[in-house]
Specification:
By secondary structure, the chain is mostly beta strands. It has one helix spanning 120-128; strands at residues 12-15, 19-26, 31-37, 46-48, 52-59, 61-66, 72-75, 79-82, 88-91, 98-105, 112-114. The protein has a single domain, classed as Jelly Rolls. Helix content is 7%, strand content 46%. The strands form 3 sheets. It has a 6-stranded antiparallel beta sheet, with no helix packed on it.
């Protein structure tokens, strides 16, 4: 049986400083998460060994940092794709909360590798090799 899902019908979880997420779809081959990030919040540098990710902004503006690039602004009704092994992080440099979807294939369960210190460019070369 199929049924509709939304952030109002699934359990939320918190991450980072005051960020929230809602797992809309959680399967081995696909994950769809709606997230909300307050102004000034960001995640830490990391990469995914296997998952390809798409960040699609619903409201606000998200800055997506990958390797040595400055933050790429992704505005409402825009998205950006990151291949596996791309060292990245996202941030909200704006003045209003940003809501966005994170679509990952396969799921990022047990796939995230935290980057502790060091240059993201150097680490990018390490994980690509």
């Amino acid at each position: 049986m199929i049924s509709a899902v939304s952030s109002a019908t699934v359990t939320s979880y918190g991450w980072g400083p005051q960020c929230h997420g809602w797992r809309l779809v959680q399967r081995d081959a696909l994950s769809v998460i709606e997230e909300e990030m307050p102004p000034g919040a960001s995640e830490t540098w990391h990469f995914h060994k296997w998952a390809r990710q798409v960040f699609y902004v619903l409201e606000g503006e998200l800055a997506v940092y990958a390797s040595d690039q400055d933050g790429v602004p992704v505005r409402a009704k825009e998205g950006i794709e990151l291949p596996p092994k791309t060292v990245h992080r996202v941030a909200n440099a704006g003045t209003v909360p940003v809501r966005f979807l994170v679509i990952s294939a396969p799921s990022t369960s047990d796939d995230r590798v935290q980057v502790e210190g060091g240059s993201p460019v150097f680490l990018q070369n390490e994980v690509q090799g």
